[in-house]
Amino acid sequence: MLLITCPVTRTDELVADRRVVAVANHPTHIAMTVACPCGRTHVYRTGRRWEERRTPQLPAPSPAREARTLVPA
Ligand SMILES: [Zn+2]
């Protein structure tokens, strides 16, 4: 199971692992395509180096939230 934030409904959705339809491993991050309960698919990117690259430009999310959610594409 994993927790995603749907960019369409803006709600947190708990989805089963089998709803992950694709995972692509990139040098800086992992791109995960998830079939969302809203009926669409969303791509989420996660990874330490991806987060480090984002940090200088964007305000960091609170550690508690980052630990339990993935960043919408
Ligand atoms: Zn959705």
Give a summary of the structure in a few sentences.
The chain has 73 residues and is of the alpha+beta class.
Can you characterise this structure?
The chain has 73 residues and is α+β, with helices and mostly antiparallel strands. It has one domain. It is 18% helix and 38% strand. It has two helices and six strands; from the N terminus they run E-E-E-E-E-H-H-E. Strands 3-4-5-6 form a four-stranded antiparallel sheet. Strand 3 and strand 4 form a beta hairpin. The longest helix has 7 residues. The chain is globular and about 30 Å long. Bound molecules: zinc ion.
- Morphology call: globular
User: What is the total tally of β strands?
Assistant: 6
Main sheet makeup: 4 strands, antiparallel
Bound molecules: zinc ion
Note the total helix count: 2
Read across the widest sheet, the strand sequence of neighbours is 3-4-5-6
